[in-house]
Amino acid sequence: MTNSMSNVKMVSEIIENSYKVLKKEVISQYQVSFEVNKDDVHSILTLLKTSGWIQLSYLSAIDWPEENEFELVYIVFNWDKAVHIQIRTRLNRENPVMNSILPIFPGCKYYERETHEFFGIKFPGNPGHEKQLILEEWDDIPPLRKDFDPRAYSDRKFVKREYSNDFVNLNGEKSKQIAREERKEKIIKVRKGGRK
Amino acid sequence: MASIELIIVFTALAGVLSYFVGRLNKVAGSVVTILASMFVFVSVAYFGYNNELIHSTEFLPYVTFSVTYLGLFFAILVTFIFAMVSFFNPFFVEKYKYPALYSMLYLLSLAGVLGVFFTNNFMSLFFFFEFVVWTSLFLIPMGRSKRAASSYYAFSTVGSFALLFAIFIMREASGTFNIVSSMASVNGTEAAIVSALLAVAAFAKLGAFPLNVWLPRVLGNSPDAISAVFSGGLEKLGAFVAVLALVKLAPFGYVVDATGLAASQYVIAALGALTIVFGTLMAIRQDDAKKLLAYSSMSNGGYILVALTIASSASVSGGLYHVVAHALASTAAFLAIGAVSRITGTTKMSELGGMIHKMPVTYLVYLIAIISMAGIPPMGGFISKWLIFQAVIDKGMILVAVAVFFGSIGSFLYVFRPLAALFLGQELPQHREVSKEAPFFMLVPMVILSGLIIYTGVLPNFFLGFINNVLTEVGVTPLVIGSYTVTGTNGVLQPALIASVFGVGVLIAFIIFIVLKKSRKVGLMDTYTAGNFIYTEELMHYSLDFYAPLERLYEKYINITKDFYKRLENKVVDLGRLMKYYFFTNKPEIMVLWIIIIMGIILWGDIL
Amino acid sequence: MITNILFGVGVAFFGFVLQTSIAGVNRKVVGRVQKRYGPKWYQEFLDIFKLLSKRSVTHGWIFDFGVIMALGGIIGTAMFMPITSDLVAFADFDNFFIFVYLIAVGMLGMAMSASGSGNPLASIGVMRALTTMLAYEVPFMIVVLTIIKLTGTSSVTGIAEFQQLASNNWFMIALPLGGIVGVMSLMGMIGKKPFETYIAPAEIASGPMVEYGGKQLGMLFIMHEITVFIEVSLFVHLFLGGAENVVLFIVKYFLVYTTLNIISSVYGRFKIDQVVLFFYKWPILMAISQAFVAIYLGWVI
Amino acid sequence: MLSTKFTKLSKEEVDRKWWEIGDFFRRNSLWMLMYCTGCCAIELPPAMTSAYDMERLGMGPMATPRQADVLLVTGYLSLKTLRRLIYTYEQMSEPKYVVGIGSCTINGGIYHDSHAVINQLNRYVPVDVYVAGCMPNTEAVMNGFVDLMGLIKTKKANGWKDYHARNEWYMANQKAALGEVKVHDEFHE
Amino acid sequence: MSAILLIVVPLLAAFISILFKKASPYILLIVSFASVIVLGYIELEVITIGGFASPYGINLVFDQYSLIGLYIVNTLFFLVVAINCVKFKEMSTILLIALAGLNGLLLTGDLFNLFVFIEISGIAAYLITATNKNPLATFNYLVAGTVGSSLYLVGLIILYAMFGTLNMADMANEIAVSGVDASLVAFPFLLMFIGLGVEAKLLPFNSWVKGILASSNKLTGPIIASVYAATIGFVVGRLLTSVFVFSDTLGLVITIILLASIIAGEAMAFSSNKVREILLFSSIAQAGLVVLVFLQGFIGWGVFLVVANAAGKFILFTVTNHASDELGTDEVNDLKGLFVNNKIVGLAFTVASLSAIGLPVFLGFVVKMNILGDLFAEGNLFIPAVILITSVVEGIYFVRLLIKLWYKEHDLPVVQYDFIIKYVVVILAILIMVFGVYTAPIETEANDLDLISFVEGGNL
After folding, report:
1. CB neighbours of A75 closer than 8 A, spacing ≥ 6?
2. Across the interface, do D120 and A137 touch by the CB < 8 Å criterion?
3. Residues 6+ apart with CB under 8 A from B435
């Protein structure tokens, strides 16, 4: 299977010698990811498209609330050389704006609208990307942001069924339910690094 | 005591009068047409029925009349159709280019039709035949297409000139133009030629298979009232000639012993069958309701031909009864579609929908008309189709039977298409405000026609009795009819019983319906759409390409005859162009060349 | 006359009860074919009366008028149907063409009210029903043409008596090709599986029946049952020599209907133009050749 | 010679008698609407096929809400599905019953904390029978149907009457959860 | 008051009109009107000029046949002049000469005298068509005309050499008496037939017709198409029925020519889309039909066919040429909706075209029916079949033309018809309608025309 490794090498030469790659990572023999500056993305994608990566497999975002950034991921695929390439960029979190790649990959239209709906990233150049696509009558911040708390939303909007706890713990032990919830609280506090 | 000649002259004068009145006020002119045609119908029907029509002639030279049952049958029917359709004139006449001319030509063609049915002299028959052709010719271009008129003229002239040729052959044999004596005096091969030519005339006028291209164009594009008159009235001229050609003259050619039918009968039956199949298939795929009804009258013309050519008692009475049933049903259907097109301006089914909400009476009229056209029991169409089936089965003509059965089931398909696409279904917003029920005077003829359709279906014996007189006169054994029953060749039918049993059934169903709980009234947009919320009516109305899977099967073969006649026309144009470019250049030397050639031919024998 | 009409209504009611119970039994048979018990034998009755007891929705007067006209037309046709050669409401008026064309009234009523319901699925279903009718009707009528030509009468009892004569066989045997075409057309008429394109639950949500519920649907179920009764008993009289007594009629009826049901329970569903192409390829050829052989050459077994 | 005096029944007694007869037919031929919302729907095929054969109970799948009597809510109900469910429920002919299958309809189940899934079905649509279990076994589903038939017999399965009686309450809940039921979407205009 | 005046007075007037240039149109009007009136007062007789006996002297035959011819030709001539006298002032002298020539053609009983009058009327025709502003066509017409008349002269000379006489009646007697074999006489008769055929617009010889009539104006159109055609029709009728003797080969060849010209005429008319072209090709076909009828020997109905054609073509050409003069073009698509504003002229045009097709209420119908009747009486089925088929084609292009002219597409062609044209055209249309319905006088006239045999008429 040497040619697949050589493909990855061949790809990385194409990208590296013409653009400044911030971080390169070979995920597997069929997948390699490059992190590049925001303004190089368009030219890289056009270069990749002309050299065989004709399909835009996926476009989405990752929310890094700590670094106050969004990370956009473009995954393009080449049917002949069987290599997925991930192009990643970082956007500022306050007003995330990224020009649409509609002229390069027309398939990105609904990906971008979905990303806008779930992350709030604006894509000028994609007609009507602010319109409601999947969520109907949504009245809260974009749900896939890390700072959105679904449980709070669920408690607020959908009334839970109250159960009267008509049960007694066996010989005085703490109920497993309460123990479970305390453990969960501790994990969250640790994950948040003690910062509120 | 009414004299036929007086009626004809009266109609012609009424036509001219309606022209001048029409010049003053359009609607008044068309009202004159109503009065005149109603008067003519009443006098012909009343006096004709208790045979007090005298046929002396004072004014018109060279024209002699005689009252025959055949002529009377057709005359009463066609004048009735003219009278009923004339009720529509005042409402449609504003839209036409020459309203006064419209009223005049309308009455003149009525006069011509009367002349055809009552004359006993072939030359005056031809005179009135051609008179009807050119008067109705100028009515067509007032509708949507101008080309239809020239194709109508072309085909009906082919028919009438074939008739003329036959008339002159008969005159050679008998020396006189009298219909009865000249028809009798022809025998052997001359009889064959004459009946073939008369058949061509019948085919041209009925719009049957080989000469059918004009019918859909004319009926589809001419003004609404006129297409009703054409399909109800003027087509029956073809049936009249068909009776002369197929029933009065003996069939000729090799006689098949198994069925006792002659070769000519097979040929004409085959062409009739082709007309039925072609008409049905083309009607199924039409999007314009009027074109669809045009193809349906073509296919019904095929039925009449098949019935008349078998010339047994059941078939001829079935054929004549079909003339009545088809005339009533297709006129009612055309008038209903005309009423819709008057309000919405279009008869294209893809642009219409849900007209029943605003025009229920028109809907009921159209429903009764299509029940008769599809040949379903309580209506007249069933009796005639039943008789024709009896004859076809009795003679064992299998392939013709295939076409006849296909035609009757197919007629159910294509008559249902306008009902579903045009009347039922979602009510389109653009027609919701503008459309309202047709005015009273338009409903009167439609309701009368539907009443008659039901009457001919439930109690056919009155009409069958009259048709029996025609049969005896034409020389076919009359049909055996009891007070309520009709006996065909292999079965007995009691239409009144069928209707009453159908009534009982509906009564039982109605009782079941009333006893149970009342349903909740819900609008048309509240339908099952697998959970999707719907707001636009157009998306929810299924009318375009109604029979798409069926139409796909024969899409490649639809305009065989149209292409044939187009190629024929191009041949004539090429010949003309060739002659023009060869002979008519400003070079005299070609003339001299031809002179020398001709001289050469003449002197060939002697000197060279 | 009144007694005949009452007798007719009795025949129609008998037809309904007979067919509904046999349909119930057949649902058990089909269940057994699929290795399961299947419902109670009177399940069809339960379904119909449950529907009649529910309160559903109507889309306007044409929606109801169509259903009434459909059921009325079919009850009217059933009243003409002879059970045995002497058990018949109207002695010599039970003409074959009355059945073929009065059923068309039922079809027209249902089609009219289905398109009047405003749901495009219903119109598509109606279109498919009419196209299927165009397909299976023509071969069937050619075979019946042969039968009428041979027996000389188009009254159903007449044809049945002709077959009961000692010298003649049943037409199923006498006209083998005709019998096969009769079976195929019967499956088309009843709307059994291979030709069930117009009630296709998966594609067009049970076709014309989309908007019906409650009593309208119940009445349409009754109409369907009586239509099946008419068509199967027509087949019995035309091809299996009618019946001397009621028991024989019921046995023949049951055999025909069950065999059809078993055949259909193993079939998939044709597309609509496959149905038309199928019927205009083999059945019509068989019908025409059978007619030609029987009438012109006179070879009848 | 018992003189069976014919006691004249009052109007509502006659209706009640008819209603009981109707109940007998309704419970013995329950038609369920083939509308599978969530993952518990996988339990239905085994209920129909030869193993459990719901047709023995007179039950069978029907294509459209107009014809169906029982609406099976199988599994979690997202907001978008709930809108369609309410629209379909209103299209069903009366008397109609709802069977909530799976714990997600009871208390939101494993999706109780999701922003898209409702937690308690009977606040929006009257439910007659719940079948608990995160994917209840087929016997449990069949048992649920038998319970429903029992409820119909004892005239307790009148969720549809409750929908009419407390309509405002249901409407208020629906508005609270969904905003408004009928929405425009660009793909069906 | 003898018939000679009809020739002499126009000639005299022609010379006078040269002197008084200004008064010439009025002279023309007066003379042509006078010649129509005087016809009523002359009695039928044969005039021998200068008292010489028939074989040598020239005699004018003024019998029933030429009376009808003169009536038609003079009335139409007067109508043409009435319409055009203002616009074509300078043509009056030539028109007077033409009138003299035409009258001479109709009256003469002597073959050589016929040649002289053909030359006179031919020259007048060349000059009249010169106003068409299409010199090449006129030149072509001139060449064709002279070739034709010279062939006629050669044929005449051969006949004179064989039988020694020039008088029509004597010639007919001589041929009958001498019992010469028809095939010997075939060649001279063919030459004479070709000579006349050029003028009678038969197919191989009528290459000039398209040039002349396609660009004709209000004067030349009616003159050539109706007046000249009628005269030639009468002349051909007189010669074919009384003088000519046909061998079977000559008969066959001539019928082929005639059928060819009918079929070709109709096909050409069907294929063209200029109004004047349609009309001229249709008149070619009609001319072929006229000669065919005379060939079969039906004098009476042949005459009335010529009359019907003349009247019909007069109306058609006048209306069309007036419109094309004003608009400059006669394309059918440009003339669409011509009759929307001028209905009376439109009605007359419709009547004329329907009578040309042969539809019931009009003169054309009566004539066509009787011709077909006589043809069938002869037991000949092929020719009527051709006539009927070609009249179907004719019907189609006339109906197509009419419908286009009556219904406007977009903007209407602005054409004003002055009062005279309307008046003249409507009268002719009414005449066609009247004689179409009230057919008694025509029937009697046609029957007694058949009875006259020319032989005695020649030296009456």
Report:
1. A56, A57, A58, A59, A84, A85, A86
2. no
3. B343, B344, B355, B358, B359
B184 found inside a domain? no
- Taking only the tens place, the pLDDT of each residue in A64-103 is 988 999 999 999 999 988 889 999 999 998 889 999 999 9
Number of domains chain A is built from = 1
- Asked if residue B587 belongs to a domain, the reply is yes
Say if E400 is an interface residue toward chain B (CB within 8 Å): yes
- The length of chain D is 189
Query: pLDDT by residue (tens digit) across C268-290?
Result: 888 998 999 999 999 999 999 99
A137, closest residue in chain D (CA to CA): D179
Give the pLDDT band of residue B322 (cuts 50, 70, 90): very high
Tell me if C209 and D64 make a contact (CB, 8 A cut-off): yes
Cross-strand bridge partners of residue E167? E110
pLDDT at residue C66 greater than cutoff 50: yes
User: Among candidates B368, B405, B369, B158, which has minimal Cα distance to B273?
Assistant: B405
Instruction: Give B-chain residues touching C152 at CB under 8 angstroms.
Output: 490
Interface of C with B in 236-255 (CB under 8 A): none
Q: Determine whether the interchain pair A158/D80 forms a contact, defined as Cβ–Cβ distance below 8 Å.
A: no
Q: Per the omega criterion (within 30 degrees of 0), is the bond before D95 cis?
A: yes
Q: Say how many C-beta atoms besides its own lie within 10 A of residue C165's C-beta.
A: 9
Instruction: Give the pLDDT score at E55.
Output: 65
D14 min Cα distance to partner chain C (Å): 14
Q: Which domain holds residue C176?
A: 2-297
Q: State how far residue B517 is from chain D, nearest Cα, in angstroms.
A: 11
> Closest Cα of chain D to A42: distance in Å?
30
Give the least confident one: B67-71, E229-233, E389-393: B67-71
Given CB atoms, is B544 within the 8 Å cutoff of chain C? no
How much is the pLDDT for B147? Answer: 84
Q: Which pTM value belongs to this model? A: 0.90
Q: pLDDT tens digits for B367-392?
A: 999 999 999 988 999 999 999 999 99
Q: Which of D110, D115, D183 to mutate to test the interface with A (most CBs of A within 10 A)?
A: D115
For chain E, the average pLDDT equals 87
Mark which residues 261-290 of C lie under 8 Å from B by CB: 271-273, 276-277, 284, 288
Domain count, chain E: 1
Task: Answer whether residue E17 is part of any domain.
Answer: no
Count: domains in chain B: 1
Q: What rounded mean pLDDT belongs to chain A?
A: 86
Structural domain including B592 reads 567-603
Domain span at residue E185 reads: 131-458
Which residues, 6 or more positions from E204, have their beta carbon under 8 angstroms from its beta carbon? B583, B590, B591, B594, B595, B598, E197, E257, E260
Q: What is the pLDDT of residues B452-504, one digit of tens each?
A: 999 999 999 889 999 999 999 888 888 888 888 888 888 888 999 999 999 99
Identify the closest residue of chain B to D182 by CA–CA distance: B533
How many DSSP H helices and E strands does chain D contain? 7, 5
- Hey, which residues does E166 pair with through a beta bridge? none
Q: What share of chain B is helix, strand, coil (3-state, %, to 5)?
A: 75, 5, 25
| Residue D133 contacts C where some CB pair is shorter than 8 Å | no
Domains of chain D, first to last:
32-178 (3.40.50.12280)
B–E interface: beta-carbon pairs under 8 A: 157
The total of structural domains in chain C comes to 1
B518 touches chain C (CB under 8 A): yes
Mean pLDDT of E116-144: 90
Query: Can you give the residue range of the structural domain that contains A86?
Result: 2-136
**Inside any domain, residue B110:** no
pLDDT in tens, E200-229: 888 888 888 888 888 888 889 999 999 999
Q: Smallest CA–CA separation between C280 and chain D, in Å?
A: 31
Distance CA D160, CA D153 (A): 15
How far separated are the first and last CA of chain E, in Å rounded?
18
Cβ contact B528–D84 (<8 Å): no
Say which range, B96-100, C242-246, E56-60, has the weakest mean pLDDT. E56-60
| Residue B351 CB neighbours (<10 A) | 17
